[in-house]
Specification:
The chain is an alpha/beta fold. It is built from six helices and six strands, in the order E-H-E-H-H-H-E-E-H-E-E-H. Strands 1, 2, 3, 4, 5 and 6 form a six-stranded mixed sheet that branches. Strand 3 and strand 4 form a beta hairpin. Helix 2 runs antiparallel to helix 5. The longest helix has 16 residues. The protein is globular, with a radius of gyration of 16 Å.
Length: 200
């Protein structure tokens, strides 16, 4: 458990959406990683990502260097964005999730993460997270990432309807949720907009 203070603040990285503009984000992160002299998951306590930012955030939290993220991003995201129809974009996004994330779960990350999607029916944020301190009023039932894989969460966060198909998510307690791109309700949602996190 980390005790945050003025001398040791909680370090949060928040990555918004924007499709192929994620290449700009990667460029900035390359500079930050160079200044820090280590991989980003080693210095940030929490990384939030929305839409294309969720792909980058997930890769950071799984321990990848920015150069590795850039290589994966260039190999997969360009193919996704190059498709014409919603179903072909979604199929390419599903392949990205399978090839890049496989069956990795939210228990596999090396630092805390928040992947932001939207509950389509209620138009409210659906945040896949690892920190029980962010469960707020339902800590007793907290399950990292709602029991979903990282790939499923990223697909939900990136499903910018009508350019993509929306994503059905099944949680650990068998709730079935229709999800869409996090940018619909919270493109720049970060931990700083929720109660201060206290990680265990």
């Amino acid at each position: 458990m980390v005790d945050f203070s003025a001398e040791r603040p909680c370090r949060i990285l928040s990555l918004d959406g924007g499709g192929a503009k994620g290449f700009y984000t990667i460029g900035v992160l390359k500079g930050i990683e160079g200044m820090l002299g280590c991989r980003l998951h080693e210095r940030f306590d929490l990384v939030f990502g929305t839409s294309t930012g969720s792909i980058i955030a997930a890769l950071i939290c799984l321990g990848h260097s920015v150069d590795e993220i850039h290589e994966l991003y260039r190999a997969h995201v360009v193919k996704v964005m190059g498709k014409w129809f919603p179903w072909t974009k979604s199929r390419a996004l599903r392949k990205l999730a399978t090839d890049v994330f496989g069956e990795q779960s939210f228990t596999d990350v090396r630092t805390h993460i928040g992947v932001v999607a939207t509950r389509w029916v209620t138009e409210t944020p659906l945040v896949f997270k690892t920190a029980v301190a962010q469960a707020h009023g339902d800590r007793g039932n907290f399950e990292p990432g709602f029991g979903c894989t990282v790939g499923d969460a990223v697909q939900a966060s990136c499903s910018a309807y009508p350019f993509f198909c929306r994503k059905w998510i099944t949680t650990d307690d068998r709730e079935i949720i229709l999800a869409a791109d996090g940018g619909y309700c919270a493109n720049t949602l970060a931990a700083g907009q929720t109660p201060p996190p206290v990680f265990t």
